[in-house]
Amino acid sequence: MNSEIIPLKRVSTPRQGSGRSPAKLILMGEHFVVYGSPALAIPVPALMLSVRAYQLGPSMSIPVRTEVTATARERPGVESIPASSHLLSCRDLACARLGLDPDELGISVESSIPVGAGLGSSAALSVAMARALAALAGLAGDTETDHLVRSISLDAEKLAHGRPSGVDTEVCLTERPLLFSTHQKPSPLSEKKPSRLGFLVLDTGESASTAEMVERVAGFRRASFARFESLQAETSECVTQAAFALERGDHHDLGRFLGLQQQRLDEIGVSTPSLERLVEQALDAGASGAKLSGSGGGGVVVAVCSISDMEKVRGRLRDRAIAAFGL
Ligand code: PMV
Question: Which pLDDT score is estimated for 163?
Answer without folding.
Answer: 81
